[in-house]
Specification:
By secondary structure, the chain is of the alpha/beta class. It has helices spanning 11-18, 48-62, 82-86, 88-99, 145-151, 179-187, 189-192, 210-223, 241-247, 266-272, 277-282, and strands spanning 2-4, 22-25, 28-31, 37-42, 65-70, 103-107, 125-129, 155-158, 170-175, 197-203, 228-233, 256-260, 287-290. Strand 4, helix 2 (48-62) and strand 5 form a beta-alpha-beta unit.
Length: 291
C-alpha cells in the first residue's frame, strides 16, 4: 500500500497518473495495490469470448497491460473450432481497440506443451476457464492445471459456460492456517481491497486455536483495509471441505471464491476434473487460486 498527503497532490490527478484505485481514509487517501500485468489464455472454445471480455474488464479496472496467449492445439484448426481458432488474433485486437487497454498477443509453441512456454512467468495474474470435454485435445495439455501448479502465478478460473458479470463485490475466502491459503490471500489482495464484503470460511478449525487464528486473520486483513466476516463450519460430519463450502450461507451472494490450490484435494479435483457430476454442477463461481 502507498499512502500520501492529500494536500500534496489532488486525488483525482494522482488516480489518473497512477491508474490505481483509491480508497478514502479519515487521514486522507490511500492507493490500493493493483495487478499491472494480466494474462488471459485464448482458444477456439465457446467459452473464449466471455473469458476475454472479463480479462479486458479486469485490465481496465487495474490499469494493467493484458497479454493474450493463444493455446490452441493443432486439432483446434479442424472441425467446428476452426473458424474461431483462426480468428483469435483479430478478435483479440478488435476488443483491445474498443477497450483502451494496452495489449500484446502471443502464440504458445504447439510443439512444446510444457508450462514454461505459456508466458505465465511474466504476469501478475492469469485467467483461464475450467477444462471440459469439448476442449480435450484442442487446447494444449498444460493449460490451465499444469500452469497453475508450476508457474507460481495466481489464476482466476472461470466455470464452464460462465457469462460475463461483475466479480469481486462479495468474496469468500476458503481459509485454513496453511501456506497455500496464506499465499492466495496475499495474491488476491488487490481484489479483496475493493470488495464490498469479504467472508473467511473456516472448515472444522481446531478448537484450541480457532479463535486466535481467525482473529489474527481478521486483524491482518484489517491492516490492509479489508474488513472480513467469519463463517466457521465447526461440525465436519461426513462433508468434505468443498461440500461444506458450497453449503455455506456465505456463498449464496458471493461472486468469487479465493482458495489455495493443494496438490491433492477435492477442491483441486472440482476445479480441474475428477469430481462427481453433482458437485461439478454446483461449481458456478469464478475462483481465484494459487499454489
Amino acid at each position: 500500500m502507498w499512502r500520501f498527503d492529500p494536500t500534496q497532490s489532488a486525488p483525482g490527478s494522482l488516480a489518473v497518473q497512477c491508474r490505481m484505485p483509491l480508497r478514502r481514509l479519515k487521514a486522507g487517501w490511500e492507493l490500493v495495490m493493483s495487478y499491472k500485468d494480466i494474462l488471459v489464455f485464448l482458444d477456439g472454445s465457446t467459452d473464449n469470448d466471455a473469458r476475454m471480455e472479463f480479462a479486458f474488464s479486469l485490465a481496465r479496472v487495474h490499469g494493467a497491460r493484458l497479454t493474450g496467449v493463444d493455446v490452441d492445439a493443432a486439432a483446434a484448426f479442424e472441425g467446428e473450432w476452426a473458424e474461431r481458432a483462426k480468428s483469435l488474433a483479430e478478435t483479440f485486437h478488435v476488443s483491445a481497440n474498443r477497450s483502451d487497454v494496452r495489449v500484446r498477443y502471443k502464440i504458445a509453441d504447439r510443439d512444446a506443451a510444457g508450462w514454461k512456454d505459456f508466458y505465465a512467468h511474466y504476469a501478475d495474474l492469469l485467467i483461464a476457464t475450467q477444462p471440459n470435454q469439448e476442449a480435450f485435445g484442442r487446447v494444449l495439455s498444460g493449460v490451465p492445471e499444469q500452469v497453475l501448479m508450476s508457474a507460481g502465478v495466481p489464476m482466476i478460473v472461470l466455470p464452464q459456460g460462465w457469462k460475463p458479470r461483475p466479480i469481486g463485490k462479495e468474496i469468500v475466502i476458503a481459509w485454513s492456517p496453511s501456506a497455500q491459503a496464506t499465499r492466495v490471500v496475499h495474491d488476491a489482495m488487490p481484489i479483496l481491497a475493493s470488495a464490498q464484503k469479504v467472508t473467511a470460511f473456516a472448515f472444522d478449525p481446531p478448537a484450541d486455536r480457532e479463535d486466535a487464528d481467525l482473529e489474527m486473520l481478521r486483524e491482518h486483513l484489517l491492516a490492509h483495509g479489508v474488513k472480513i466476516d467469519i463463517d466457521k463450519w465447526s461440525n465436519a460430519g461426513d462433508l468434505s471441505p468443498i461440500e461444506a463450502l458450497f453449503a455455506s450461507p456465505a456463498l449464496e451472494e458471493a461472486d468469487l471464491i479465493v482458495a489455495g490450490a493443494y496438490s491433492h484435494s477435492r477442491f483441486r479435483e472440482a476445479l480441474f476434473g475428477g469430481m462427481t457430476k453433482s458437485l461439478l454442477q454446483q461449481f458456478s463461481l469464478p475462483v481465484l487460486v494459487s499454489h
